[in-house]
Amino acid sequence: MPESILLTSSHESAAHVAAEEWLRTLPKEVRINTLTTQTIKEHWLTNSPRQLAIAFVDAVQQRVWLQVAYMPAVESKRAVRSYSPLEWMRECIGAEPDELMRTVAGHLPSAEEGSAAAVSLIRLMRDEDPETLRELCKDYRHGESNMPGWNKLFKMLQDVDGVWGEAQAELQEAVKSNNKGGRPNKEKTATHRVADKDPTLNGAGRQPKDRKSRLVRTLTNLEANPDECKKRGTTPEKVAVAKSRLVRGLTPSVEAAKREAGIAVSTKPAGGLGVRGAADDVAKRLIRMVGADHAKRIASAILEALKNG
């Protein structure tokens, strides 16, 4: 094995050990929140729906996103971070709410755990991003297949196991309470009061910590502003499609979503003409770049400018 590989492996191992030692110095609540988050991410990556559902419900009850240890290899960058629930899912777990929902809902033998996780996720979406929750309730056409929205998904699940009726009822109430003119019941109002005290929630001016949440907010604002879309060379319809694909986990990255929305900033260097070197060489480069006719006009303009200068 090459020496460079051994050195890299040794360095990574030492950094991991140092990070774990740092974690042990943190308050108990932070350690528990961090380990719970790591467990959920492991269940997500290994596609373990039942374990994922159980761990997710526990995480929501503990509100683990309020204090999670961020442990990069660089010691100076380690910190205890506070997220909103959706930021935590995207940044720490690496999943969109729609992906999590379809994973726990697709494991029918554990309907009770799946339904409980679905209810928890619906409540988080209701408090933090009701507009996206309504979006995910709709069916979505993806290529030749049709992705049922959460509304139809729970109806189908309820036909198989009645326990999913709780999730279906929770979804209907959440959507209803966030529609114009709707009034949340006492339980929902109490939940909103808790959310108001949570510094990671309900902050219209607060910049989300993770890139995907920031982009979702940008696309939401653009979708409602045709003039701004026009300034950025796109349309509300194009933005809406890109946002819908992003929140359903169909777009592989933030960069890809920006391209789909038509708001990606080109990283291609602007073409230019080097004017250093022999005059003959510069002239040849100019002719190749703009063509003989335009090169003649440029030369004439240069002569005229020199004459008048």
General description of the model:
With 309 residues, this protein is mainly alpha-helical. The chain has three domains: 1-94, no CATH class; 96-199, no CATH class; 207-265, no CATH class. It is built from 16 helices and four strands. It has helices at residues 3-24, 28-45, 49-62, 85-93, 97-105, 111-128, 130-136, 150-160, 165-178, 186-197, 211-223, 226-231, 236-247, 254-261, 279-290, 292-308, and strands at 68-70, 79-81, 140-142, 145-147. A hairpin with an 8-residue loop joins strand 1 and strand 2. The protein starts with a helix and ends with a helix. 28% of the residues are buried.
Task: Write a compact overview of the structure shown.
The protein has 16 helices and 4 strands.
What is the 3D form?
extended
| Total count of strands | 4
Low-confidence sequence ranges? 1-7, 181-196
Please report the distance between the alpha carbons of the first and last residues.
Answer: 68 Å
Q: Strands of the biggest beta sheet: in what spatial order?
A: 1-2
Rg result: 27 Å
Q: What is the residue-mean pLDDT, rounded to a whole number?
A: 84
SSE class? mainly alpha
Number of domains: 3
Helix content: 55-70%
